[in-house]
Predict the structure.
Amino acid sequence: MKIPSVKGFHDVLPGESARWSRLEATAREVFLRYNFAEVRLPIVERAELFRRSVGETTDIVEKEMYAFEDRDGTEVTLRPEGTASAVRSYVEHTMQAAEPVTKLFYFGPMFRRERPQRGRLRQFSQIGVEVFGRDDPGIDAEVLLLMSDLLRAFEIESGEIGVNTLGCSECRPGFRSALVAWGESKRDAICGDCQRRLEQNPLRLLDCKQPGCEALRETAPKMLDHTCLACGEHFARVRQLCEFQGVELALRPYMVRGLDYYCRTAFEVTAQGLGSQNAIGGGGRYDGLVRSLGGPAVGGIGFALGVERLALVLEAQGVEPPSTTPEFFVAPLGSAAEEHAFALAHRLRSAGTGVEVDAGGKSLKSQMRRAGKTGAPYVIILGEDEVAQQTITVRDMEARADRRNVVGLDTNLEDLRAALQAARSTEEQA
Ligand code: AMP
């Protein structure tokens, strides 16, 4: 009996995984330019970590965590996001003692028990960054510039960075009251969930996806009109610094984020080609978080991008995954040739190129068919004659020509490439 994978948990198959590797390699390169260092965080954390940071009344904590009691009674969970883990690690290892500013990046799977659909999985992968120890607008702008550089390096064409300010503990209560008053005045028109949000987490009123609530939103108060002087100046400076560098930010006055810890600058990146799940990344500032998790009173800011969604956007743009095609396919004919093929493949691989080698028991026709499927530009044919003469025949698939006796069976990679190149040049001149 076949055992299928679990709903919402997907394989990333060969071919597609090449795209993932490239995304991660590109991200790594860009992060290093900005002086971020990698942290590898565990997948299992204490459930309390997310209750206290992400927020008790958020969807993530309320409905979506894979939390369970471990055999020793500890309540643990598969991590639903990376920021709280990064903060936990920062605090646990007193990273601030080594450096007043800590810049971390991470890759890895996150788990949320959401309703699966295109671009929404229960296990998904994020690329994230966090900065601890700076609360000036300059670092917010740097993080936004980093996001913009990343999108360009990934070759995402339609990415748009939307920003908003969420205020701070000084000004948010006033905004919250204004929002509650507005919500009360619309109580009969808003959905049941929003009526509940009105009591528990009024900011989330602005996040509702119900068409009725979405339409009403335009009449809701905006945080931007309720900021204290410091938050207003901070936000204006962030936008100005990005503008100076030519990085466009779209103002989204009703954007709130699905996690409670954000304050001041919040942002979300959207792209085309995803349908309704059009957010490819999001982040923001979280100044009280480190302190609330037992660390020093330092500011923090970060973001995370969803790898599955980045891959979908690239696919929609028609960007092919990078090729993993070997340079040579070695086709031995008969058992005597097989051992020579084995040795030759090993020599070429050790010299640094990709080689696929077949077993000797098959016909040339069937091996050529396999070779064609791999896409290898050169097929090395090792038949009885070649072995007897201690040479090889190379079929140049692009030139559609056989190169006989151009190198010996004991050739190295360099000589082989040079001989194949020379054969092509001679042919082109002729
Ligand atoms: P968040 O941690 O909620 O701010 O999400 C950051 C990014 O992670 C989103 O913009 C998505 O690209 C990705 N993401 C979040 N949840 C999922 C999910 N269930 N499936 C796939 N990607 C997700």
Summary: Residues 272 and 421 are 43 Å apart (CA to CA). The chain has a mean pLDDT of 94.
